[in-house]
Amino acid sequence: MMTGSSEELADLKAAYMTHNGDVDRILTELRCCTVHDIERHCDTLQKLIDSREVTLRRNFTRSSAELRRRAAAAAKQVYHYTVFRKRHPFCFFYNSIK
């Protein structure tokens, strides 16, 4: 599935309707979805709602805000981990965490 393809859009719409806008469940159902795709998928869903292709679900507004916060926290954690590893490549504590 190509990023931004019509197949991906159709899968995103179907998952949105199936899970009543619960972004956690939507992203779990989508194939090849990573933390880096969260923002893009939430923006795509918001555009679909704005264009009235799908109806706004209460779960979407709640879960997308929480998911964006968690994604930002995860990205920050990954960033700090990579910076630490570059500065301290032989630290055993971080070598045991994967």
Question: In brief, what are we looking at here?
Answer:
This protein is mainly α.
Structure description:
By secondary structure, this protein is mainly α. The protein has a domain of 67 residues. Helix content is 69%, strand content 0%. It is built from 5 helices and no strands. Helix 1 crosses helix 2 and helix 1 packs across helix 3. The protein is elongated. It starts with 5 loop residues before the first helix and ends with a helix.
Topology:
Blueprint: H1 6-18, H2 23-29, H3 38-50, H4 58-87, H5 92-96
Helix pairs in contact: 1-2, 1-3
Oligomer: single chain
Provide the low-confidence segments as ranges.
none
Shape descriptor = elongated
Straight-line distance between termini: 28 Å
Which tags fit this structure?
single chain; 98 residues; mainly alpha; 5 helices; elongated
